[in-house]
Queue: 2 jobs
Job 1
Amino acid sequence: MALWLPLVAFVGLCIVFFASLEFSPRGELPSPLIDRPVPTFSLPDLQTATVRTPEDLPEEAFLLNVWATWCFPCRDEHPVLMAIAEEGIVIVGLNYKDEDSKAIDWLNSIGDPYQLNLVDREGDFGVNLGVYGVPATYLIDAERTIRYKHIGPISSVQWRQKLKPIFRSLQGLDDHA
Amino acid sequence: MLNGVIRPRRGSQILTSMMVLLICTTSSGESKSEVDLPPELMARYEVLIAELRCPKCLNINIADSNAPIATDLRMIVKNQLQDGKTNSEIKGFLRERYGDFIDYNPPLSPATLVLWAVPIVLLICAALTFTYVGSRRDKVELSDEEKARLQRLKAQHPS
């Protein structure tokens, strides 16, 4: 029995390593901000330059989408955000380490899915949100508590199958309602 | 004759300094040039950025990563050091935002318990295995016939 032990241990380790190769989400960190309130901020509005605070956030469940014109995957995500906005869902943008003029041009030329766009030019608020890559999207409930973080661009399949059901539950609605 | 003694030493000194230079330029040349701190803060800065993991790049510290977020986090470390924050306050600030992942020296918590326990458990398993194998070996009893054969063999092959 003792002779078999190293072999058993070896095979066990192989299974663990292969499983972790297969199942560990690559480059996705669990956020410690889940179930915590949106960190406080005072940031300019992209369109009007008015200073916005958490008080100006929607009083219903919404998406907070971190984006930038220099972010290549954001362009892939943009049509999906447009479709989500079409569904009547509120999206707040956080224009991250970008230039205002470029951001406004982007929205004017390919469409603006955001109800409100905040400007985080230095990325300070991004750090408070635990942003480390763009795009990232937070699902936030009516009490302004962060409920879910999606890292990377949202595909329409991910929206339909994963994010929308979570968002509907934040709205207090069933997915089929 | 004196030259003969000195020359190889000088050669090795040059080689050593070249190697040291090479290490400096590859590992933290960038992070050193971008900050200007008094020596005692600089020393803590170097330690902190070596212990903090880049959240973007899975397995590299923020000292060696040139991802934009690593640059931002180095700036945060620098600014907080200048503000007089302690090392644990700075790490706490980043852990609150990026989780324990950010720290290459994670605290003992339910999530990291396995990490800390596995080596101890393996050590106990190894110890148990050794004592089990050892005790089985001690228990070997020879029958009378075997004892007699052992004696015969010993007599035939004196050591």
Job 2
Amino acid sequence: MKKKVTPEEVVKYFKDEFKTKIKGAKIVKRKFGSKKKESYYVWMKVDRTVFKDSIEHLIKLQYPHLAVASGNDIGKIIEIIYHFTLNYDQPLEEIILNISVELPKTDPTIDTISDIIPGALITEREKMEMLGITVKGIPDSSRVFLPDDFPEGVYPWRRDKTGPEKYYKNLHEVKK
Amino acid sequence: MSEEAITKTSYHIPVGPIHPALKEPVYFEFELSGEKIIDVNVKLGHVHRGVEWASRKRNPIQVLYLAERICGICSYCHPAAFTLAVENACDIEVPERADYLRVVQAELERICSHILWAGVAAHEIGFDTVLYFTWQIREKALDLTEFLTGNRVTKGIMTIGGIRRDITPDMLPRIKRDMQFFKDNFEKLRHIFLDDKTVKMRSQNAGILTKDDAIKLCAVGPTTRASGVKKDVRTGESYFAYGDLDVKCITPKDLTGTVNGDVYDRIIQRLLEVKQSIELIEQCIDEMPAGDIVSEPKIPKLMNQIKKIEGEGVGRHEAPRGEVIHYVKFDGKSENPYTWKVRAPTYNNILPWIPMLKGEQIADIPIVAASTDPCMSCTNRVAIVKDSKRYELTKEQLHKLSVEKTRRLMK
Amino acid sequence: MRFSMLPSVFVQMFKKPWTNKFPAKYAPSNTTQFLKDVGEGKAEIIPPIPPEKGFRGKIKYDKEKCIGCQLCIKYCPCEAIEFKPKDKKIKIYLSRCCFCSQCNDVCPTNCLTMGEEFLLADADPYSKDLIVE
């Protein structure tokens, strides 16, 4: 592990390299316990064209721990958020770095990062089946959680007509 | 096909999806050459219940109880991570006393889980007397849980902005007495696991996960710490009262001086953590400040506050098996979460199985798989073996193989 | 050391078992017959360990105090509570209840409390014992 970084340094490090391709960078600080020690959350939006470069750039700073990638369906856009952890071996200095990428529904493709962080494989496969995005260059694109006979073109986390609405109609009917 | 390819072909053995020597559904496909494992393929999703989707129709108070039912053993961790995420998204301050009380509950759950795991691990290698011994200790831990929370398994103790039950001074003697009981029995358990030849024979140099693999495959919890990676949410981030307490990230190095990353190291790691948890509970009880336990006791008022918020938050908690992370997003129109993402520790500990199991024997599958303490219902949130003609190894057969190996080694 | 568990095993031979033998010392060959006998007073049940103080068991409902505000229905995580619009009271289906006591917390008049009864198994989910009103 390389030397520790501060949240301000992380934001500056990204802004220096990618400039306007980084949007909405903010640092959230929260205090806990009676000694009111701080914990740090960094949020930023990265343009899709430089997403892979930004992860490679991050690895040059420090090899991060990828917790998970989560996804939102917001209207015409699918947002994928990668939750990284930095400084995890430094006592009370851990930074949670949330990098979000916006993908238009007309072309929901993103580059894989599983070649540089092998632990990202399961979470990328999950996003593919749940949100119907395409991950370019993924070594294994089979389903993880959904069964093999689950219909094609239905994505459980979507909120539009490709969502699972027609499959749960009678879920709440209970005899009373 | 050439003649050589026929003589050197390898075998494929499916294990699972129901009970691959574990008590949880997961499907393995092993490629074998004789007794040796060459490649492993893991298939998940057999108990996927769509809880993340179900949360869209529930308000945050209802989601707490939904989160509690993700996993029976981590029935505190998931609500804890969810509340942290909601509190981060809505910027809710928690009273100091509640922070300490939350640590007590978290550590008590860790004792329960690790003791249970120690019993299951002993059972996998055919050492059943230890199984009964550990479950005797766990029974005491569960009784204490019932005393503190009102139920043995589904605790229902967490709430947004605090905790639901206080520890009153008349409860302290009982807690101190039980902590003494855990300490006495912990010494016994440590002696059995660390000095007994049977355990050492089966666990040393089995299922090795190197430090490099642990970092690259993003392993979490005791699995990664046993490989020497100092990743522990409790020490890394200040949340609950962990920032105030004297908590140190421990690795097997503290006891043995070396880190091998094998099954034996993972046993040591969990035992050391039990001791750490007992110490943390005692520390909490001594240092607990007085005050409120909930920031906003009126739930309808709290919901109105959440309804107006448009934002997102991440909550992390160190569960017995590793880091739990929840992501919550509110859209400002309804109090129900817009998105809720659950990441249980086993989700990240699946990929490390592949380097661990490669090169091992079939009889080692139970103990190696059990050594990461997998929890499938946490990870999956449905199973088809296409070719029913294929030979399946049942849990009983695998367990028998494992017991036979122990007997063979003892001769 | 090879037999580290052996002393414990020997000691255990002279100790009482750790568990409570509920409901009978040996599993009866016919459970329904056994329960019938218990009802007629021919056989006896070994009592269960009493629950701790503050245990969340069968819910108790004080009908007089209830003002019909429906807050409990809004916050019940498992939709176990039904509203009776005629007399503005509630009906709780215990077969759906998860015993979280959240309704007790939101109730403005404290008409709901948790009891200590926990032996609630029944073949019919809508039997009289499982509906509180």
